[in-house]
Design a protein that fits this description.
This protein is mainly α. Helices cover about 75% and strands about 0% of the residues. The longest helix has 23 residues. About 10% of the residues have low confidence.
Length: about 170
């Protein structure tokens, strides 16, 4: 996506013509990023607006549209993480209900409970955030604390533990 440098300058100086252009060009990306983290349209809208406000308050000068968009996306991610922390973290129970829908065979709830018991809360959350939400390890590290490499290691150990716990015969 190419953003006009003049429009970015107008946006940063709070001129209406630049603000509407930048907003029209970037809102879909910003909102999608926030929604992918929060899974709540109201919270995603709030995080998006907060991201724009944070960029305006930064007072930075952006050499090109790519730098501006990168900064805006980082601001959106941090705004979404802040909102998630304020509401008490990520609500993973929604995803468990998705797995227990009628589309899945009976007994899947018991399987998920057993996986949660085997792994513990933190590793189970890591698995859900990576496999269900599709979040990258650096972002998960920000959410849970730690480093991306430690998340990768915990993820690998969790999968190995599940492979050792659940045999192929368990699913036949």
């Amino acid at each position: 996506m190419k953003l006009d440098a003049i429009a970015i300058r107008k946006f940063m100086t709070r001129q209406e013509s630049g603000a509407s252009y930048v907003y029209e060009k970037t809102y879909r990306i910003v909102y999608s990023l926030c929604f992918s983290l929060l899974h709540n349209p109201v919270d995603a809208e709030d995080a998006s607006m907060e991201a724009y406000a944070n960029v305006l308050q930064s007072g930075k000068a952006f050499p090109n549209g790519k730098a501006f968009l990168s900064y805006l996306c980082i601001a959106a991610k941090h705004s979404a993480l802040d909102i998630a922390k304020k509401r008490g973290g990520f609500d993973l129970s929604e995803n468990e209900e998705d797995f227990s829908s009628p589309d899945f065979a009976k007994g899947d709830d018991a399987l998920l409970r057993r996986v949660k018991e085997e792994l513990g809360e933190s590793d189970y959350e890591l698995l859900i955030l990576h496999l269900v939400h599709g979040l990258a390890f650096p972002l998960i590290a920000e959410i849970q604390g730690g480093s991306a490499s430690s998340c990768r290691g915990r993820y690998s150990r969790a999968l190995a533990k599940l492979r050792g716990t659940f045999r192929k015969e368990d699913f036949q």
